[in-house]
Amino acid sequence: MRRLKFLNRFLVVPVFRLGLGRFFGNPVTGYYMVVRTVGRKTGRARYAPVTYAIADGSVYCLAGYGRTANWYRNAMASPDVNLILAGRTIAGHVEEVEDAVERLGVTRQIFTNAGLMGFTEGFNPFRASDDTIRARTAEMPVLRIRATDNAITGGAFDPGGRAWLWVPISAIGLAIVLARIRTGVRLSAEEREAA
């Protein structure tokens, strides 16, 4: 828990605040956004990274640590928030999802979008029964964030988008170029020795 807080505070939040979130999400490590709330006691900006899903023109997330999570309590006290997604920032209004069918559907999607972290609650989000997901996430509030200006649609860097593919493809391309440069340098040295 302490390591995760440290990682979130000093890596994830700064990366997203600098506009570099697009380098962060993929199907393995998961897709994240940062929720900017107003502190209920301090009135200062507070940031919390969470996994999310986009459905029906809204963004959904859940409070994995339950109703005691500070960011959740801040969002409930002052429901106008900003979301820093990989490719954009959205102003929105938070409300807790009460409908059981809606809650179940987006909860499963949030966990599948979390990559390997989606398995940390003791179930496989791709194969678990509805009853298992309901039981394991009963104490986790699910939140719907509706944009204040228009409906939210998924982008290239959001879950389901394909923009994440360019990072590994670029890394492989760079490795190939560097290997060829190194091989070329080695050949040149061998040619000099032969002469």
Structure in words:
With 195 residues, this protein is of the alpha+beta class. The protein has two domains: 2-161, Pnp Oxidase, Chain A, CATH 2.30.110.10; 162-195. Helix content is 38%, strand content 21%. The chain contains five helices and seven strands, in the order H-E-E-E-E-H-E-E-H-H-E-H. It has helices spanning 2-17, 70-77, 100-113, 130-136, 166-194; strands spanning 32-38, 45-51, 53-55, 58-62, 80-84, 89-96, 142-147. Strands 2-1-5-6-7-4-3 form a seven-stranded antiparallel β-sheet, with helices on both faces. Strand 3 (53-55) and strand 4 (58-62) form a beta hairpin. It is elongated and about 75 Å long. The model has no long low-confidence stretch (mean pLDDT 88).
The string of secondary-structure elements, in order, is HEEEEHEEHHEH
Low-confidence stretches: none
Overall tally of domains? 2
* Largest sheet geometry: 7 strands, antiparallel
CATH class annotation of the largest domain: Mainly Beta
Going by CATH, the homologous superfamily of the largest domain would be Electron Transport, Fmn-binding Protein, Chain A
Broad shape: elongated
Compute the CA-based radius of gyration: 21 Å
CATH topology of the largest domain: Pnp Oxidase, Chain A
Give the helix level as a range of percent.
25-40%
The share of residues in extended strands comes to 15-25%
Based on DSSP secondary structure assignment, what is the total number of beta strands?
7
CA distance, first residue to last residue: 63 Å
> How are the strands ordered across the major sheet?
2-1-5-6-7-4-3
By helix and strand content, what is the structural category? alpha+beta
Number of H- or I-type helical stretches:
5
